[in-house]
Amino acid sequence: MQKQNDIVLEIKNLNIFYGAIHAVKGISIKVPKGKIVTLIGANGAGKTSTLSAIAGMVKPKEGEIIYKNNNIAGKSPHEINRMGIALVPEGRRIFPNLTVYENLMMGAFNRKDKEEIERDLNWVYNLFPRLKERLKQLGGTLSGGEQQMLAISRALMSRPDVIMMDEPSLGLAPVLVSEVFDIIKVINENGGTILLVEQNAAQALKISHYGYVLETGNIILENNSDLLLKDENVQKAYLGMA
Amino acid sequence: MSGATFLQNLFNGLMFGGLYALLAVGYTMVYGILRLINFAHGDIMMMGVYFAFYASLAGAPLWLSVLIGIFGAAFLGFLIDRVAYKPLRNAPRISALITAIGMSFFLESIAVVVFGAVPKSFTAVFNENNKWLLDKTWNIGGARIPVLTFIVFLITALIFMLLFWIVYRTKIGMAMRAISSDIPTTSLMGINVDMVIGFTFALGSAMAAAGGIMWAMRYPNVFPYMGFMPGLKAFIAAVLGGIGSIPGAVVGGFLLGLLEIFLVALMPSAAGYRDAFAFIILIVILLIKPDGLLGKKSVVKV
After folding, report:
1. Which residues lie across from A85 on neighbouring strands?
2. Where are the beta strands (DSSP E) in chain A?
3. Shortest Cα–Cα distance, B84 to chain A (Å)
4. What distance in Å separates the CA atoms of residue B285 and residue B241, rounded to the nearest whole number?
5. What is the pLDDT of residues A39-48, one digit of tens each?
6. What does the mean pLDDT of chain A come to?
7. Which residues from B are below 8 Å from A112, CB to CB?
8. Chain B residues within an 8 Å CB radius of A83
9. Distance between CA atoms of A165 and A162, rounded to whole angstroms?
């Protein structure tokens, strides 16, 4: 099971409200170093809200977000990013008026280590050779799949300790969906800690180590991913098996 | 029109246009980022001119007075954003717009109280050492052009080169362009968005003050409402070029300056309608090409 001292990111009793709507109702999540943890659940279950709260885009009403022994709940997004947590936002959110290269450099905005930036750029080009061919193109001219790759690369360029990805496979052609999941696995094999949110539960559970199932703001189930894949309720509700 | 008169008008138009352009860029940068028309922009220019004027009265040399005016206006622009606009970032856009109009009145009133309503002559900044700036003229193709006109044009061009370098070649410029398309995602990149917005206000205000000070050297009348009409004209120039587009503001500024000068030159009897003419241009552009000459087609997000 998860060892306490390996936990990079821990959420305790997180509560998020939008006005009177109680979107996230006291959930607790642990993300161990070097693992892929996935949150699955239907639309409106509170997955994106949880990631937004960790990234600082939404202020939680109650609860703690412990990252490297600090409570970061309520800090602003740029402070949280500088501490080492990067978010690949839902819908990719590429800067359409910046070139592909500039989009990548936006990810490395606060870094001063030029040589290491160069190394990370080469690593990213290696992961996504198509980006290298399009460095001077504006981000807005890329296809959906290329934009997703750019969004992941941009997050990698900050050399984060934790990468959060919000629905990275959404709206992509099936071929690209597998490609994105393969890449997530490669990033993890290179030491990346990943908190993944997905509606594509089957693929997400296949590559992840641990999973949480969210339903209307509550965690209704959590377990090692391989066990969740075999769970009868999960199979029925999220994997489309009768 | 004789060749000499044409040249005279051309240089005048370029100088005027450059000054409009310097102001217009501030409007367009703030609009590009916050979708806010900063109606206090012309008044920030006015304050910059007063800062330079009083620095000079206090004994500062001309170059230092100019820098005090520019940096004073930059700081004022930054401060206005912090105090007046930042608290309204998530408020409806109309709230910020009304605040901008209020800020414009506030600055004008403060100027009346502090500096007095009586116009002051900016020629006070000139002394024996630099009076030649006012007196010297060059003879070009039969036209006598004040040297100051050339200097103003040259400095304007240098400022624009610096601006384009900042916006397209530096990290802060990259952050400005990123913010103009997506503020929340920019903050996810570890960028303090409020600092970048503050910098944008400071940069626009500094350019406005530079324009205002050069304006005051040519038309040395300094008074609390001096920013009003140039501010409106620069707004027209920004709309003409396509609001939100920096190259558009530059093109719009020069075009408006040239159009105004040549209207008066070709129809001297219409000289009194010069300001009205600028507003007619605004109405026409809003009717036939509301996105401006270089503006992007605005798509309403659903």
Report:
1. A162
2. 7-18, 21-32, 36-41, 62-67, 70-71, 85-88, 162-166, 193-198, 210-215, 218-224
3. 21
4. 10
5. 999 888 999 9
6. 94
7. none
8. none
9. 10
Biggest CA–CA distance in chain A, Å, is 54
CA–CA distance, A57 with A75 (Å, rounded to integer): 9
Around Cβ A115, how many Cβ atoms within 10 Å? Answer: 7
B47 in Cβ contact with B76 (< 8 Å): yes
Q: Are A82 and B190 in contact (CB under 8 A)?
A: yes
pLDDT band at B302 (very low <50, low <70, confident <90, very high): very low
Q: How far apart are CA B55 and CA B139, in angstroms?
A: 34
What's the half-sphere exposure (Cβ side, CA atoms, 13 Å) at A148? 21
pTM above 0.90, yes or no: yes
Q: CB–CB of B53/B122 below 8 Å?
A: yes
pLDDT at residue B119 in the model: 96
Alpha helices in chain B (DSSP H): 3-34, 41-57, 62-80, 93-115, 132-135, 147-169, 171-181, 183-188, 193-218, 228-241, 246-266, 274-288
- Structural domain boundaries enclosing B181: 3-117+124-288
* Model ipTM value: 0.93
B186 chain-A contacts, CB cut-off 8 A: 95, 106
Specify if B299 maps to a domain.
no
Q: According to DSSP H, which parts of A13-143 are helical?
A: 47-55, 77-83, 100-107, 114-127, 129-133
- Structural domain total, chain B: 1
User: For position B3, what pLDDT does the model report?
Assistant: 85
User: Taking Cα atoms as reference points, which of A32, A35, A29 lies closest to residue A47?
Assistant: A29
The CATH number of whichever domain residue B175 belongs to comes to 1.10.3470
A97 inside 8 A of chain B by CB: yes
Domain A4-93+162-238 top-level CATH class: alpha beta
What is the C-alpha separation between A139 and A118, in angstroms, rounded? 20
